[in-house]
Amino acid sequence: MIMRHPLIMTPGPTQVHEEVRRAMSIEPTNPDLDENFFEFYKNTCNKIKRLLNTNNDVLILDGEGILGLEAACASLIEPGDRVLCIDNGIFGNGFGDFAKMYGGNVVYFKSDYKKSIDIKELEEFLKEDSDFKVATLVHCETPAGIVNPVDEICPLLKKYGIVSIIDSVSAIGGELVKVDEWNMDIVLGGSQKCLSAPPGLTFLSISDDAWNIISNRKIPIAGFYCNIGVWKNWYEDKWFPYTQPISDIYALDCAIDRLLSKNDYVYRHKKIANAVRMAIVNSGLSLYPLEGFSNTVTTILVPEGVSYRNIYNDMLKDHNIMIAGAFDYLKDKVLRIGHMGENCYEEKLYITLKALDSTLRKYNIKLKGEIHKYFIDEI
Ligand SMILES: *Cc1c(COP(=O)(O)O)cnc(C)c1O
């Protein structure tokens, strides 16, 4: 059977370029024994350092983004530690659950789910209570399409001596990330979002302050796969804690090369995101967020008179384009278009918005003009 794959315009996983798929098919060596592979792995980590603007250690772990998130919590949090969970959305709130799993005594700083974190409010909160070992924060709230000002939040946390764990899975490669300048302690990403590599890998940068916590725990880390500590001397010892997913890493390396070869990639994401938003608003539809719009995903309220399911099904069936909805409290209320990595190009957004326009018209949704035309006007 020949599969006619749809154009995947979801906010991850994203389209994987043919070059990246070819890299995946390179004949693997034995990654535990072949010294060349240790160099290859290190070199890929160095490319990630460039993406993150950091000299901190970087590791690639064999599991999807959630592994990075859980490994950071498992490695930094001891039972009874006070953890600040900065929460303005579904992923932000869920981070608190991971902290609790490892015994964290979690306190939530909750803010408006339709806006990015207000730095003034957070500052007021910390003036009252700042006795936290660790804080968790999501850079881009993917379900809502909101980006948080990590450039202001992380330095503030550092001022109070709080070590930050930042989930930047849907931001790295599409938003500016300056780990060293902004004092970000652990920053984690995934292969399948803006880097447009196949799903299956997470990577993270680890600051000296984070390593200090890991090295000076009272209670050893309960686990192995989520234990960042076991990696401390991997390069010097030429030792991996488990056999590396070598083909996935070949693909990731190639995908990062593709991204880095376009050094305007943050600007490109910003420009496309802006044009998509303007097209949505000008045509009379509504965005979910009130402010703090993400460069990588646009979240649109499902207009009255049509269901999310119908839009999703018709876009797929009639146009062979896959968009996404959301989950939890946003289930059936929004539709999401990803403009990440390989998907963040004018022609892909044009045909996606044209398909959306045609689908909404089928359900007699009133539009002020053609969505895709507004997009072109803005680009
Ligand atoms: C995609 C994503 C993850 C990884 O979660 P999956 O749903 O398993 O792909 C983690 N955090 C954020 C913010 C994400 O967007």
Helical stretch tally: 13
Low-confidence stretches: none
Number of strands: 13
Arrangement of strands in the largest sheet: 2-10-9-8-5-3-4
CATH architecture of the largest domain: 3-Layer(aba) Sandwich
- Helicity, as a percent range: 25-40%
What is the beta-strand fraction? 5-15%
Instruction: Count structural domains.
Output: 2
Can you tell me the CATH topology of the largest domain? Aspartate Aminotransferase, domain 2
Give the termini separation: 39 Å
User: Which CATH first-tier class of the largest domain would you pick?
Assistant: Alpha Beta
Q: Identify the CATH homologous superfamily of the largest domain.
A: Type I PLP-dependent aspartate aminotransferase-like (Major domain)
- What structural class do the secondary elements suggest? alpha/beta
What's the story with the biggest beta sheet?
A: 7 strands, mixed
* Unique bound compounds: pyridoxal-5'-phosphate
Give the overall shape.
globular
GO molecular function, one term: L-serine-pyruvate transaminase activity
Family: Belongs to the class-V pyridoxal-phosphate-dependent aminotransferase family.
Protein name: Aminotransferase, class V
Cofactor: pyridoxal 5'-phosphate
